[in-house]
């Protein structure tokens, strides 16, 4: 059993072999470099494009407005009233240091509205206020929008695929490991689980009333509902398992988990993804970018689940799993500690390709004007602006290149992982 695990992790699908293979190819190194650049834009975007200065000295006081804004957003500090009445750019400074792009993605430059080209004439006080990638119809800086879009794209990819990976790994693992006849319960336990699951669904749709969250966003309500269903269902499973063992109840009822989960996957896959996503978004009165992330994650797990199911069907009959069962370990411990860790290779492939799909889906929704708020600037919303003026090439080409590059990079990583999976040692 030990040799099997060591051999699988060192010669099979692991982090070190993946890094070596990616670094060995030119396009792999290029993909990693581009993704690092995107992460840099997303993490440090506030210090690259902002209408507040890095450093300012006024009235003899030293300030770091961008850093202070984080504490202001958390309610731990306040800006003085002059900032709101006069504006940062109209204050008198003894010394000041501005970011390379002195604009936020939502700032309106009314002197340079109606699609100002990056190479055309611009009405700016100096070259420091130049719009290096032009502006859109409202006078918003395209470069600042590109940076804001990078943050939105990576957040969508990470959060959406994180949710999809969690759901897909869990459901795929239980479907493959337990199959249709390995999970048994007594009749009272089945009744308990079904009642708890039904109550969790009811409380999910009414959680805003119970917790007085009427003024909270859809994202908070959806996240709390998801956690509530997970916790209550898990509690019901553990309680029913304890009750069956404590009371020595006959476990005569088989739960066909594999059949149920595969039918759910087929139903979800039978509906066009974009159509299903738009229908689910229509449920929320004020959908946001975070709502899109959760919904994409909740419908993008099917591929991961099918990969996990296939791996678990193969792994559950191996000798080291049979050895752990003979030692008396319970099924949950075997599944979580021994089976799932050795079946995560295909999941990395699905997540890499899924990240690209999630980013493209979000861009598509933004392009057609569904999902994010009106003040949320993304790559898709920038391309949508180009439809109002087909001669404003910079609004279509630059965000399009950004989308193309990030999707290509994740596809390259997925292909690299696929090649490593073929070398897995049995």
Write the layout of secondary structure elements.
Elements: H1 2-11, H2 15-24, H3 26-48, E1 55-58, E2 61-63, H4 65-73, H5 81-85, E3 95-97, H6 142-178, E4 184-185, H7 187-205, H8 207-210, H9 218-247, E5 253-254, H10 257-270, H11 273-281, H12 289-299, H13 302-315, H14 319-326, H15 331-339, H16 345-367, H17 379-386, H18 393-421
Antiparallel strand pairs: 1-2, 1-3, 4-5
Helix pairs in contact: 2-3, 2-18, 3-6, 3-18, 6-10, 6-12, 6-13, 6-16, 6-18, 7-9, 11-12, 13-16, 16-17, 16-18, 17-18
3D architecture notes:
The chain has 426 residues and is mostly helical. Among the domains are: 2-19 and 145-183 and 255-421, Orthogonal Bundle (MetI-like fold); 52-98, no CATH class. It is 64% helix and 3% strand. The chain is built from 18 helices and 5 strands. The protein has helices at 2-11, 15-24, 26-48, 65-73, 81-85, 142-178, 187-205, 207-210, 218-247, 257-270, 273-281, 289-299, 302-315, 319-326, 331-339, 345-367, 379-386, 393-421, and strands at 55-58, 61-63, 95-97, 184-185, 253-254. A 3-stranded antiparallel β-sheet has the order 2-1-3. The longest helix is centred in the middle third of the chain and has 37 residues, at 142-178. The radius of gyration is 26 Å and the shape is elongated. 32% of the residues are buried. Residues 1-12 have low confidence and may be disordered.
């Amino acid at each position: 059993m030990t040799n099997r695990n060591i051999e699988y992790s060192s010669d099979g699908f692991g982090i070190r072999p993946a890094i070596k293979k990616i670094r060995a190819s030119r396009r792999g190194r290029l993909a990693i470099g581009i993704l690092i650049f995107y992460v840099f834009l997303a993490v440090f975007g506030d210090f690259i494009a902002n209408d507040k200065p890095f450093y300012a000295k006024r009235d003899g006081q030293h300030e770091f407005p961008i850093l202070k804004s984080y504490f202001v957003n958390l309610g731990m500090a306040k800006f003085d009233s002059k900032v709101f009445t006069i504006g940062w750019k109209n204050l008198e400074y003894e010394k000041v240091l501005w970011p390379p792009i002195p604009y936020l993605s939502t700032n309106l430059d009314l002197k340079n509205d109606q699609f100002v080209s990056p190479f055309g004439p611009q009405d700016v006080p100096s070259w420091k206020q130049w719009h290096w990638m032009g502006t859109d119809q409202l006078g918003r800086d395209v470069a600042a929008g590109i940076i804001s879009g990078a943050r939105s794209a990576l957040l969508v990819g990470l959060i959406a695929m994180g949710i999809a990976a969690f759901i897909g790994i869990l459901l795929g693992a239980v479907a493959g490991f337990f199959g249709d006849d390995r999970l048994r319960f007594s009749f009272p336990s089945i009744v308990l689980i079904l009642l708890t699951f039904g109550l969790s669904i009811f409380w999910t749709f009414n959680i805003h009333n119970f917790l007085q969250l009427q003024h909270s966003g859809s994202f908070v309500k959806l996240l709390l509902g998801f956690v509530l269903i997970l916790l209550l269902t898990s509690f019901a499973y553990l309680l029913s398992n304890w009750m069956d063992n404590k009371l020595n109840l006959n476990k005569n009822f088989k739960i066909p988990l594999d059949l149920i989960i595969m039918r759910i996957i087929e139903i979800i896959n039978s509906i066009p993804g974009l159509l299903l996503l738009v229908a689910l978004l229509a449920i929320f009165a004020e959908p946001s970018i975070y709502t899109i992330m959760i919904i994409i994650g909740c419908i993008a797990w099917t591929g991961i689940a099918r990969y996990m199911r296939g791996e678990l069907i193969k792994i559950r009959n191996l000798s080291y799993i049979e050895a752990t069962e003979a030692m008396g370990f319970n099924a949950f411990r075997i599944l979580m500690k021994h089976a799932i860790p050795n079946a995560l290779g295909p999941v990395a492939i699905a997540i890499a390709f899924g990240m690209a799909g999630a980013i493209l889906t979000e861009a598509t929704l933004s392009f057609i004007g569904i999902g994010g708020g009106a003040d949320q600037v993304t790559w898709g919303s920038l391309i949508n602006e180009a439809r109002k003026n087909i001669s404003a090439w910079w609004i279509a080409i630059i965000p399009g290149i950004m989308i193309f590059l990030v999707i290509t990079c994740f596809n390259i990583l997925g292909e690299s992982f696929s090649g490593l999976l073929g070398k897995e040692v049995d």
